[in-house]
Structures are given as structure tokens and as C-alpha cells.
Amino acid sequence: MPEDRLYLKQIEIGPMQNFAYLVGDREKHECVVIDAAWDIDAICNIAEADDMKITAGLVTHFHPDHMGGSMMGMEIDGAAELIAKKSVKIHLHKSEVPYAHKVAELSDSDMVATEGGDTCMAGDIEIKFLHTPGHTPGSQCFLVDGHLVSGDTLFIGACGRVDLPGSNPEDLYRSLQDTLKKLPEPTVLFPGHNYSPQTTSTIGQEVRTNPYMRFGKLQDFLSAMGY
To answer: Which of 40, 174, 189, 200 has a Cα-to-Cα distance from 10 of 20 to 30 A?
Structure first.
């Protein structure tokens, strides 16, 4: 694929330093939005300014700062507002559908339940879904043409929390070691939050420098996570 055909825009948005992403096909002028939350109008306006039509919403996990809903006394716009504005379906892991009912008040007809290995298309650009549980049961990353949108599974120099309802540190260890660590080293990493001086990294850099990618034993990882 020509490098300039892939449309990938990283958008920092909201008070929790979230990243939303627009990913798509410049030639077909179609894109998906990943983790649309906080300001749906702003995200949609960016796509429109770039002459891109949003055709789907993808969600890395069900937390309100990534999908919308109520959180710490805040009402966060998210998937429901995207559906109202663009009439799209929200793709999230099948294990998170019950959470989406409660957190974002989505109905079954609003959603496409996914599992690891599934794909969706943005124009002629294929996006692959990787199930990476741990931070939440249905956390998923999105792989497209050597680029990985990792949500809260893997950050630059860190990884997602495992002390929240539904978190599982053993699952996160396996997601990091058995799924993400096995991706090609040049794979460009796009995390779910701006928690680092860098806004992108690579899998190779994280394998070499991220302490949470370097534990050879589960028990060492668990100890580092406070278990």
C-alpha cells in the first residue's frame, strides 16, 4: 500500500489526555473513528475538514473516557453521540457488550460484537482486531498496515492498570507477551493516552525499554503490578 494512502490522525482530546484516532483510506475518502469520546463534534469536524466520511466507530474498551458515559461525576459524550450524528455501528469486543449497555446505554442494534482475528474495512484499508484482555476483559487493539492502536493495553513505557473492576493482571501479561511482543519490531505504536513526551513509539522500542514488556516470568510481572 502506498504510504500516503493510509489516513491516520491522532487527536488528543479531553481532560484525561485521551487519544482518539481517525483511520482510513485517502483515495476512497472513508475512515473509522477509534475511541470517540469527549467532543464528538470536534472529531467529526476534523474528519470533514480532511474530506473523510466516518463509516464506523471502533472501541478499544468500555471505559467512559474511551466510549462515553458517566465517570467520576462527569457525563462524557461518546459512542451514542457518534451514532446520532453519523448513523454508524460501534465495533467492540463481544465480552464488553453488556458493559456498553450499562455504561454508554447502547442497544444491541447499535453494536457489532467482535472477537480477535476479525477485520473491518475503511475504504480498501483493512483493520485487524487483536483481543488483548487484561485492562478490561474485552480490551482490543487495532492493527493496520504496520500501525497498532493499543488503547490502554500498552502505553509508551508503561501498560494499562489492572486494579479496576474486570481487570486481570495475568491476562494482561499474556496479552503483552504472547500477542503484542510478537508483532514485528517496526510496528508503530499509537497509545490510548498521551502519558509520555513521545506520542508514538514502536514495538521494538517498547520491547527494549518498557519494563512491563521485559518480564520473562508471570510472577515477576505480578509482583511489579502489586500482586
So the answer is: 174
The conformational region for residue 132 under phi > 0 = left, psi -120 to 50 = alpha, else beta, is: beta
Phi, then psi, of 88 in degrees rounded to 5 = -110, 165
pTM above 0.85, yes or no: yes
Q: What percentage of residues in the chain have a pLDDT greater than 90? A: 96
How far is Cα 38 from Cα 83, in angstroms, rounded to an integer?
14
Which residues face 71 on adjacent strands? 74
Q: What does DSSP say about strands 147-151 and 188-191: parallel, antiparallel, or unpaired?
A: parallel
Q: Do the strands 125-131 and 119-122 form a parallel or antiparallel pair, or are they unpaired?
A: antiparallel
Cα–Cα distance for residue pair 183/206, rounded to 1 Å = 11
Task: Return the CATH number of 6-224, one of 3.40.50.300, 3.50.50.60, 3.40.640.10, 3.60.15.10.
Answer: 3.60.15.10
Q: Cα torsion at 109, 114, 118, 124 (round to 10°)?
A: 40
